[in-house]
Amino acid sequence: MTTNATRPQSPAVRPRRSALLHPLALTGIAYTVSWTAGLSIGAPSPGMHDSGSSIVAQLRGHSGMMDLQFVLTEGLPAIGLVLICLGLARGAAGTRGARTLGAAGLAAALVSAVQCVLGLLLVSASAPGTVQALWQTTVRLDGAKMLALAVVGAVTAASASFPRFLRLLGGGLAVSLIASALAYGLLLPSLAWLAYPGGLLLLAFVTAAGIVLARARVGRSVS
């Protein structure tokens, strides 16, 4: 008679799988899911210099979609940025840039939360002048948030505490977001396309950072 014995899992496999279920890994993944869902809604996207009356007309009948988009792309991601950036700062503890990384991440999260609030106010406003002011403020704040996230990427790239691939992502993120931050901060619509590569790199960076931090935590608990 023969028996089929189940081969025990390798100790290296179990931590890797459990790391993906760690809160930090799930936070990084949820960040990308939230952003992707928000962008897929298909809500109106006024131009940087559109008049207040034009913006009001574009948003008419889409208030629910706009509210949901601001929550998914600014509100919920703000929470994710706090957790991931504080995790990165802790991972870089003992290095010169750790505090800078944490402060820049918290600044980006704060700006994102403010954008969410302003966006919800924008959707409920009806006066063209108010709507235009809120919209342009939200766009300019995007530039400020991009600069803060560029600092996060640059400090990560310069830290030997993280894997090479995450440092490369951080470096690419810093370069791309500095360029797009100028476009949004100065309301330059001809350069707004620069936000697309920066956005993709940001999603990849935050997701990867969450998984890297989770693996480090799980690895320490197992050893």
Automatic annotation (TrEMBL):
Keywords, in A-Z order: Membrane, Transmembrane, Transmembrane helix
Keyword Transmembrane helix found: yes
Membrane spanning stretches: 20-43, 68-89, 101-123, 143-161, 168-187, 193-214
Tree of life domain: Bacteria
Signal peptide residues on this chain, from the entry's feature table: none
Protein name: DUF4386 domain-containing protein
Organism: Streptacidiphilus jiangxiensis
Organismal lineage: Bacteria, Bacillati, Actinomycetota, Actinomycetes, Kitasatosporales
